[in-house]
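Please check this.
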Amino acid sequence: MIKKLTFLFTLISAVAVFALDDTAALSSKVLDRENRTAVIIPVEGTVDFGMAAFISRGLEFAAQFDNPLVILEINTFGGQVDAAFNIVDTIVACRLPTIAFVKSKAISAGALIALSADQLVMSENTTIGDVAPLINTNEGPKMLGEKFQSPLRAKFRTLAVRNGYPESLAEAMVTEEIAVYEVSFSDTVMYLDSAKLADLSPALKKQIKETRLVVRRGELLTMTEAEAKRYGFSKMTVSSIDEMFQKMGYKDIEIIRVAENWSERLVRIIAAISPILMMLGFAALYIETRSPGFGLGGILGVFCLALVFFGQYMVGLADHTELLFLIAGMVLLTVEIFVLPGFGVAGILGILLMMTGMVLSFQSFVIPKPEFPWQYAVFMENIIRVAMSILGSVLLIFVFFKYFFVRLSTVVKGPYLSATLQGTAAEDTAGFVPSVGDRGKVITQLRPSGKICINGEECDVVTEGQFIDKGTEVVVLQIQGNRIVVSVAPPAAEKIDIKCEDSEKVA
């Protein structure tokens, strides 16, 4: 019997040790007020995956010290929901004591990040709350419905339980359909929504001393620093981080501030201008397909798209799947340029594959999940972003071929043919120059340059950007120096019979 009791006591002790190990370790760090290293991580600007990567690096840096304390210095209006969830999960999973210090404001996703820390401290004249999930429409920002609010409320409820915050008030930051009351009893104060208040037992209702409305139905909870302290969210109100350390009793604390490095700043800049880079990239690649060989347009297009992919890869969004889509698309475009005539299935499929790769590189998921309904909105937003870049590239292509391409000969210095052939013998065809309006037939495919035959004479010409097949009748539009610009000729009254002895050989 004694052996069984001894074994049972040993087993219970071991389980208790393992169960309390993490809590004890964290508590010992929190209670140790001397010789700490405070690592301050700024949480400023738009919440995006660039910020998520920066905060993750900051936490890894703080973990290198023996006795670290992480301060999340928050000043943000919010941003992407997926990025905020990523940041929250990273903070909750780290084994370091964390304090969220609201420097100016913690709105929307910023409030979610603030509540994920172990403790919340707010500076004077600051605010926290208003976590309405919004989407931009033609009529302006619009709040998403219950389907979108429910997962956010669940996240806030989980963080509230974890840190001892009032659950109903945390949920009221997300949903405006909740009315919350401050219910005072003789020995405690509770914050209950109207449903929970109605469900109180008759015995508890008799013990209520006072009921005060805190959040009206139809309003989202946004708290000042004083209200956050009163309602049990903020631990204290201070004017600076130094004052916070002083009030908390920390002594001989070393403060290290983590700053974005050049690569992280570059990644956030790339993310901001990614639609422009995609527009330039797609336009340059299309222009390259309309030109013989592989030159500056192809290099510029690949560079712009690779730069966008690099930025998304650095923040952890793009990976092997997106890279495979981009490479497959570029391979098909290369085949279209060098192997297949014209622009057909391979070229279109190549562009579609590249678009798919770019869309996937802007999100942390492949297919939107039903349990995260905002992912569908993110997915559609990314499709629109890439589609708008394509439309912008179409406009650039039109401007390039309409106003720039035909003037390249005036931009690049000569020498050009400046003398006329007036007075030469009719049979001397070595210097034949056609006139504007002359018609001829294509003898080598124009992509967009090639050869045509006019009145039995061969001429090197270019189009305004179109591909024109062999045998098509063309007309001379303009002559600039030694550059002859042609286009497909409109139907003529009489069919032109043109003979070029060497046309078959040239073709």
Notes: Residues 1-31, 424-430, 493-499, 501-507 have pLDDT under 50 and may be disordered. The first helix runs from residue 2 to 31. DSSP finds 17 helices and 18 strands in the chain.
